[in-house]
Structures are given as structure tokens and as C-alpha cells.
Amino acid sequence: MHKAEPYATLICHSLIAIPAVAFDVALPFRYTAQSPAPGYTADCGYGFEAGDGNYFSVKVPEGNYNVTATVTWVTSMHRRNFGPDGKVRNTLGDYPEAVRQTAAEERVALIDLHSMSAAFYEALGAEKSPSAFGAGGRDGTHHSAYGAYELAKCVVNGMRAARLDLVKYLVDDVPAFDPAHPDSPDAWNLPASPRFSNRPPRGN
């Protein structure tokens, strides 16, 4: 059974000097959480728990600290996998729906990046969608700077839709974003980091 607490515990390692702290934590379940199976299929068994309502407490191993987090569940974005009809095919099994179901049952905020990423990829189409992915589009899981930027805009949309308190920390000039009408990859440019590498990270 996947639980939210281990994710928050990792975050809290950097907060051990603070006796009491409240923070917001987004809980995505990554592709690497899937059970390996041919064709990227997986049955998660709906084994997610979000804690107790909107909040849960975390015990930090280095001491007894009262850490409270506001939980927001985030569905995983799609991989680049198109069907003959030009629609993105789900390769994540039941995981996205499990996150949606858990968020509804626990009455916590949800950012449905799974749905928004499908709209984003389909707007680009099978021919242009590689520009949103790493290794010149050869990596169908991890994103290029352009793809990551557009998905970050999707997350901001989700934050606004969920009316998260975090929205007040956004800069004033962040416009609304429609993933079905993304920025053109041909007109978008961000200089690569000096440590940029085309080597895909581990995990698919």
C-alpha cells in the first residue's frame, strides 16, 4: 500500500531545525511506482491513502517535531504514446484514477496533470510532440525544458482551480493557460543549463 507519509518525511529532513512547521505538499505518484510489466501496464489496486483529511502529521526521525502539511494530490502526466486516432493512450494503468478516487474520498485538493498533459500532447500532435520530450524526442517519458515549462503551467492552472493557498505566492504576471493551446515550440527558447545532458534519467 502506498502512503503519503514517506514523501513528506523526505521533505521534512530539511526542516528538522524547526520545532513546528506547516507547509504545502503535492503528492504525485511517479512512473517508477508501477509494477514492471510488458507494455507499461499496471494495476495499483487502489492502495493509496492520503492521511486524515486535508492534513497529516509527520514524525521526523531526528526528533519529535510537529509538522503539518496541506495535501494536494497530483496525477502523473502521460507518456508520449499516441494511438492511430491521434489521441494519447494511457500507459499508467489504474494509477491516475486511484489518485482521483483517493482525493475525492479524502476530500483533498487534486491537480489532474494526467488529463491536462493529454490535452497538451494532443494539441502538439504526434509530429510535434517530441519537442516536449528529452533526448530530442527519443525519450517518451522525460521532458525537455519546453515540455517541463508547459506542464508547470498546467500545475499552476490546477492550483488556481483548486483555490490553493499557494496561489497567493505566484507572481502577478502569470497568465491563464489552456493546455489545448500551448505555446508554440518553434517560438519558445530557453538557453540550456551549463550542466545540460541528453542522457535520460533512470526509470521509465
Account of the 3D structure:
The protein is an alpha/beta fold and 204 residues long. It has a single domain (2-169), classed as SGNH hydrolase (Rossmann fold, 3-Layer(aba) Sandwich). The protein has four helices and six strands, in the order βαββββαβαα. The strands form two sheets. Strands 2, 4, 5 and 6 form a four-stranded mixed sheet that branches. Strands 1-3 form a two-stranded parallel ribbon. β5, α2 and β6 form a beta-alpha-beta unit. α3 (113-128) runs antiparallel to α4 (145-161). It is globular. 27% of the residues are buried. The model is unreliable at 1-22 and 35-61 (pLDDT under 50).
Helices and strands in order:
Blueprint: E1 2-3, H1 5-12, E2 20-28, E3 48-49, E4 55-58, E5 66-74, H2 95-106, E6 109-111, H3 113-128, H4 145-161
Parallel strand pairs: 1-3, 2-5, 5-6
Antiparallel strand pairs: 4-5
Helix pairs in contact: 3-4
Find the CATH superfamily. SGNH hydrolase
Secondary structural class: alpha/beta
- Give the total of domains: 1
Tertiary shape: globular
Describe the biggest sheet?
Answer: 4 strands, mixed
How far the N terminus sits from the C terminus, by CA atoms, comes to: 21 Å
Order of helices and strands: EHEEEEHEHH
Whole-number mean pLDDT = 74
CA-atom Rg in angstroms: 18 Å
Question: What's the total count of β strands?
Answer: 6
Q: Which percent bin holds the helix content? A: 25-40%
Strand content: 5-15%
CATH topology: Rossmann fold
Unreliable segments of 5+ consecutive residues:
1-22, 35-61
Total helical segments? 4
CATH architecture: 3-Layer(aba) Sandwich
What is the level 1 CATH name? Answer: Alpha Beta
